[in-house]
Every structure is written in structure tokens, then in C-alpha cells.
Amino acid sequence: MIRVLALLLLAAVVPCNAQQSARRVVILKIDGLNADLLYRHMREKDLSAGKPQLPWFSHIFGDNGTVFENFYTRGISLSAPSWSLLGTGRHTVIRGNVEYDRYTGEVYDYLNFFPFYLGYARGRDVDMPGVEVLDSAGVPLLIDTFGYQQAYGGFQLFQRGVRWPTLEHVLGRRFSKSGLFSMVEHAGTPSFEEALDHQAESELDRALQQPEVLYLDFFTGGMDHKAHTTSNPAVLYQELRQLDMLVGRIWTAIQNSPLADQTIFAVVSDHGMNNVPGILSQTFSLPDLFNSPSGGGHHVATDRHQLSDYKLRGLNPLVHRVIAPSTSSFYLAGEASRYPTAWLDIDGNERASVHLRNSDFNKIHILLIELEKPGMQPQVRRAAAAHLREIIDRHRAAWTETTNDLNQEMAALEQAIRARKQIVAQQPKKWTPKQIAAGEDKAARRVADELRAWEREYANYCGYVSHLRALLDLNPDPNRPLKENIGALVPELSLGDNNTIRDLQHYVVGPSPTGLALDASGNLDLQRSFRYVDNFELLASQGVRNNPQPALSSKPVDFIVAALPDIGSQRAYWLYGDEAHQLVILTDAKGNIALQPVAHLRQDQQGKVSWSAESWAAGFPLHLFEDPELQLPAGSDRADWLSASHTEREWMDAVHRCEYSNAVIGITEEMSPVAEYVPGSPGISPTLLRFERRRRELVQADFHVFAADHWNFNVRFPNPGGNHGGFFRISTHSVWMLAGTGVPVRVVSEPYDSLNFASTILSLTGHKPPMPDRVVTLQ
After folding, report:
1. Predicted local confidence at residue 308, as pLDDT
2. Is there a contact between 602 and 609 (Cβ–Cβ < 8 Å)?
């Protein structure tokens, strides 16, 4: 008690000098900390001690700093996209926790720390995967504003380099006998993370004593881990107490540093957490659904083993692709390792992204298999060969353009590879202490890492082009069994182009039970020849028979989101609740947003989208019309206001306290064309910039599935506590607080989102913000 009071007094006697400008910023990044939970405990008193329950948080930020009461995750409340927004201050080019390249099957696994640490210790990797993606896209991090010797970055999802010489020692202890037992007993946590946290905090304290270091951050994931496992208020409070002590230690170290009167201390979280006392989050298995006959009999690819698969292999931290074969596959039995047709990102907890192989690729594959059979009836063979040519001809223009463009891009990449090899060959074999201190060794490793990535991309994309060319050149003999190798025509571990809405509503999953059939004209009867699934109806119709928790819906899927073709000059996004309850979100060139309630949306074979216009009523996705927290201008009619076009600020003011907070804005952030936000690295050629934008577009999902309240899709760790990933306010309500030089004592009630953070921090420290219109004026 005496020590705590002494530290409080020490902190209190160092005043905030509003006349001085800040030179240094220290950022505490807390994964998964819900603002409601923190702010409630900051306000409440510990009656037995006569002080706030969280004395350091309350003193530093509540009494002497700025608290943003209504700060929200922009986009979906997932760690990788959310930290990307906070760490760059720009619209995110990363939209999931794991992403898959549709052409090559490349996996971008943003949450798996361990391969990075191991790769770094082996002298290969230098940055986390998310940083590599941002660098390729030309999107700088907040830390990049500062020079190498001016910045100290902690262990985190977007980690640039590693400064800790003891990392190899920590990894070595992890593979000791005691470390291996700990890994088995605790499923890979927490001893490794605790060792890293302890080392990182010690390094942070030392860096604060170096006046040349002007940017420091520290990342902690303990709250996120704990909140996933339990909603017990007492357990979560104890985790907050640990965070409170961490905040106190960092603040005290700041006050004892040479730049105490020139430092801003920021605390920020990436998202909230759907923790409600007494409610256990329930898991629904999307892999099982897509594996099943009703779901299409897909071989399903994910980035991790499911809980049902756990043996020793389930503890392997180096896994980045796991394929669950279907025993119900209609035409790919035994081909799971080569042809998984559904790829899922289920790390989103309350949300999953779904990538399905192009429906026409499925149909082509089915027809090729049928045409291989020697006993096929001649008239059926001729009809099947004719329809195969028809499918290829329908895609001929687009596929020819794709192959031509990719050939140009691969030629430019090949040239870049040759030039890069010369640079790598000239790099020093050993580095002096001075060069290491300046980060030159890491810069060189970064150059070599990028070369290896380019060589891999060149091989993979050339392979995809060769398959596409083979399909374009295919002219099957209508009178004889197919002689071509199907593997040379249909690329393995590849999904092809994104599906249209029409494809997803009429998705081919196999031949019909009776095989190919002809119509009266002798052509292939498409309805009788193939099995189809309407993926939207499939997901919305899922229900559970036994639900012992009254707070949970018997339907685990809340709604599905997919992009629509542009409607005139407006971008359009579709929210499917069921056939009668759907929304269309429209955005114009200025970023204004409007909503339309619709039903029975369809896309025809020519690509035209139509729907039945509906009147506003309860039950549409996001439930805005019936939400009592919807705040509209005085005298506004709810239906008229919701259907009219409004700016983001107007939407934010109106909806941020609703059950789905800023979902209207978040959906446009998640679903907008990602290529628009890819500036490319400095000096990049137009051809390679086009290639980089293509790669970012190729990892975008066909659609996203959002779970009903307290449901989740995490079949790896079912997360009985809370979850995040959706648009519920409890999941998107994040923490942002500031204290220190030039920061006023203020509670900001106006709502802001992730894009405001980095620009405001850089502005406060005298640097150019990436988005000047997003700077929050504190005074």
C-alpha cells in the first residue's frame, strides 16, 4: 500500500505542461480489451481500500488525461485487420486473420507468432507476415515514421524486426523437456508468451532511458486469452488488476525517464469482447456443414486443426493449412489434398470468411471426369463436350486477359528477381556492431526475404497461367474418351476467380445422382445433370434442436454479407438474413451511405441484380429500425432517415450506441475494393503495382458469415467465454486513452474509430498524419 501511494505521488508531482510539444510517444497495446468493462471498473471504488478499483488507470487517464468514451473498431472486430488500421492510420488492405490466394493457394497467416520467432532465430524471417504484406502494398506503419534507432517495437502481430538477443534463448527453453511438457499441458500457452512479455517489459524500461528513442510500444494479449475462456466477472477483474499494475509500471518508468515532460502515453485496444456473465458462448462448426452432403460435400481447408482432430499434431504451431476431407464428396473422393473446394477463415469467432472454388471450375472438373469414362453414351458425350466448350468460351475473353496480364506481370517480376539477386549477392556475410545497431543487417534480410517471396510467387502464378492456357486450348473430342491429364487442366490447391452472386445461389457441388442428362433438344440438361446448393439459404436455415441457454438463438447464423456489382455509380453490398429480410448498402463516390430493405434478391445469368423493395420493419439485418439506441435528428422519420444517403459522421452519430454499433460503416470498410488502398512501394513499376493490387484482390472472400449473439465459429478452441469478429457493440467498443505532454483532462463523448488513432498520435508528436482529416483536436 505504502509503495503504491508513493508511486502515485511521484506521478502526480510531474505536471502535464500543455505549452510543451511532445517528442516521444509510448503506446500500450492491449488485445481484446472491451471499453465498457475497463471504464466501469475505472469509475467504481474498492470500498475496502477506499480507492478506485483500478487506481493507476483512474489516476493517469481518468483524473489526468483524455478518455475516448466511444471509440470503435472500424471494420470487423478481428485482430489482424484491427491492428492494421491502428498501426497504419490507413484503410486496411488486410481483411482477415488468415487469407488465401485464390489462384495459388498461398496462405497468409497473420496470427501465428511461433513460425516467425523460429524463422527469426534461424536468421531467415525478419518481419511478421502482416508487415510483409503491408510493405509489399506500400503501406507504412506508424513506427516507420521514426528511424530505426529512434523506435522500440514490442512483440505483436505487426512486428517489424526483433531487437531482443535473448529470443533464441527463450525458444531454446521452449524446446527443453519442461517447455515441451508445458506446451502439451497448456495447449501452447502461456509460458512462452509470459517469458516474452517479461523480456519485452525489461527492454522497454531500458529503452525509456535512452533519449534518442522517441517511439515505444508494448503489446499484451493476456486479456484477449482470458476473456475467450471465461465471462466470470471476478476472473476478468483480476486480469484488469494485472493490466492496471502494468500501466503503473510503465507510467512510473516514463516519469523517471529523461523525456518525462515530452512524452505522451497512449493505451489502445483493437476490439472489445462479447463477455456477458452467466452466458457460455456456443460453437457452430462451419467445416462440418460444408463437409456434409447438404453443404456440398466439400473438402474443407482451414489454417488450423479442429478440436476434434487434436492429438500431438494439433499442437504443431507451424501448421498453416489443414484439409478436412469429406466422406460425402460427390466427385472428388480421395482428392482432398489436391482439390479442397471450400477454404475458411474461422479465426474470426463471431465471423467467418468463406472462399469457394469457382462454380464453373467445379462444373469443368465434373465434365472432364465424365468425359474420361469409356462407356459414356455417344449422344451424352457429344453434349458434355459441347457444354464444356461453351463454359470455356464464356470465360475465354476474361481468362485471355488474365493470362496476358499475368504474363506481363511475371516478366516484370522476373526482371526484378534478376536485379534483386545481384543486390543480395553483394550483401556482407558478416555485420559489424555498428551496422547491427543501425539495423542494416535486418534491412538486408528483408531484401533477401522479399527475393524468396518473389521467386515463390513467380513459380506459383506461372503454374496457374499454364493451367488456364491449357483450358483455353482444350478442344475435347466429342467421340472419344478424354486423353488429356485433368491435373494439367484444373490447377491443384486453387479456387479460380471469385464466384458471382448467381454462382453462389446456384452453386455446382457435383453431378446429379443419375448422372448427366439430355434435354429434348439433345443438349445437356443443366438442372438434371448437376447438384446445386444455394449457399445463402443453406447458412440461414441452420438451426439447433437442443439449446439450453435462453439467451441464445436456435439459429447460429445471424446474416451473410457479399459484394454486389456496382449499381450505376454506386457500390453495393448485400446483407442476407433470410429470403424476406435483406439489406442493400449503397455508397457513392463521396463515401455517403444509404440503406435499402429488400427481399428475394437474385442475379440472372447476364449478371443483372434484381430484388423486391420492402418497407422498413423489425427483423432486417442489423435491426436498426427497431433499435431504441438509434439517435436521429429531432423530427426525423426512422424509415426515411435510414433510406436516405448520409455521411459517415452522420451514420456514426446515429448508430454507434446501437446493438450493432458502426456496422453500416464497418461493412463498407471490409467489403470495399481493396486495390484502391494499395499505393505500392516507392518506385514500383506500373506493371508490378498492378500485380500487387491483383494479389490483394485475390485474397478477398466470396462472402462473410456472421454469427448470432453468443454464437461463434471457432472449432479450434470453442471459446466458452466471449468472442469477437462481428459488429456487436460489445465486440467493437474499444479503448483509447491518452495522458502526458499537452494532453488535456477531458472525456470525449463524440464517437471515433480506428482511423483516428495513428493520425492523432502523429499530429501530437509533430509528424505528418497519414489522414489529416482524421486528426482529433483535443484542446
Report:
1. 62
2. yes
pTM summary value: 0.93
Tell me which residue of 623, 728, 738 sits closest to 271, measured CA to CA. 728
Q: Would you say 23 and 259 are in contact if contact means Cβ atoms under 8 Å apart?
A: yes
| Residues in the chain, overall count | 779
If the chain, 779 residues long, is cut into consecutive pieces of 10 residues, what is the mean pLDDT of each piece? Answer: 42 41 95 96 86 95 97 96 97 96 96 79 83 96 95 91 64 50 42 72 92 96 94 96 97 97 98 95 95 97 75 61 93 96 92 98 98 94 97 97 98 98 94 91 92 96 98 95 95 98 98 95 96 98 89 96 95 98 96 97 95 97 98 96 97 97 96 96 95 98 97 88 95 98 96 98 96 94
Per DSSP, the residues of 538-567 read HHHT---S----TTS-S--EEEEEEEEEEE
CA distance 350 to 634: 34
Smallest CA-to-CA distance from 340 within 495, 465, 487, 463 is with 495
pLDDT value of residue 298: 98
**197 CB-near residues (< 8 Å, 6+ apart):** 155, 220, 222
Other residues' Cβ atoms within 10 Å of the Cβ of residue 676: 11
What is the Cα Rg of the chain in Å? 27
The rounded distance, in Å, linking the Cα atoms of 185 and 701 is 35
Read off φ and ψ for residue 736, nearest 5 degrees. Answer: -145, 120
**237 CA to centre of own chain:** 28
The CA distance from 571 to 588, in Å, is: 7
CA distance 516 to 181: 56
Question: Using an 8 Å Cβ cutoff, are 29 and 218 in contact?
Answer: yes
Q: How many CB atoms lie within 10 A of CB 505?
A: 19
* The pLDDT value given to residue 181: 43
Sign for the CA dihedral angle at 285, 287, 293, 294 comes to positive
d(CA 735, CA 378): 68
Burial 728-760 (b: 16+ CB within 10 A, else e): bbbbbbbbbbbbbbbbeeeebeebbbbbbbbbb
- How far is Cα 269 from Cα 85, in angstroms, rounded to an integer? 11
- How many CA within 13 A on the CB side of residue 199? 19
Residue 350 near residue 724, CB atoms below 8 Å: yes
Residue with grid cell 422519420, as numbered in its chain: 637
What one-character-per-residue DSSP string does 247-273 give? HHHHHHHHHTSTTGGGEEEEEEES---
CA–CA separation, 717 vs 590, rounded Å? 42
Pairing of strands 263-269, 24-30: parallel
Q: Which residue has the cell 444455394?
A: 534
Beta bridge partners of 266: 27, 738
How high is the pLDDT of residue 84?
Answer: 97
CA distance 415 to 541: 52
Grid cell locating 282? 456456443
Q: What are phi and psi of 749, to 5 degrees?
A: -95, -20
Closest Cα partner for 405 from 415, 413, 416, 395?
A: 413
Residue with cell 483509447: 736
What is the spatial distance between Cα 160 and Cα 33, in angstroms, rounded to a whole number? 23
Residue recorded with cell 542494416: 440
The Cα-based distances of 94 to 484, 563, 674, 698 in angstroms read: 39, 17, 8, 12
SS3 137: helix
Closest to 711 in 3D by CA, of 559, 552, 561: 552
Provide the H-helix boundaries in 629-733.
638-643, 648-655, 663-671, 686-698, 729-732
CA–CA distance, 645 with 653 (Å, rounded to integer): 14
Q: Note whether 776 and 765 are within 8 A (CB).
A: no
DSSP-derived secondary structure letter, 145:
G
Question: Residue 3: what pLDDT?
Answer: 43
Alpha helix ranges (H) inside 49-105: 55-57, 79-88
